Amino acid sequence: MRHYDDIERRIRRAAMQVIVREAYQQTLAEQDREHRRPAEFADAWKMRLVDLLARGTVEVSGWSKITIADLDADLGWSLYAAASYARSEAISSVRSG
To answer: What is the pTM (predicted TM-score) of this model?
Structure first.
């Protein structure tokens, strides 16, 4: 049963990565129209992720319906924080370079 649990955990992690990426891509698709500054973009991305995580289930192209559990939401916020930090650092690097 341990092997099955490990596989299940990896699938859930991958699914949450897809949800965080989906929130980012949806926000990015609006960027041409919205012209948000970096901090505003991060806030919009965060709000879109809030919306997706509140749904309980999310449909993403190429995946079956993804059911979100409480632990998955914690992982989603950890992934968002890491990706948001990396994006902020990349922007700072470009500005100072």
So the answer is: 0.85
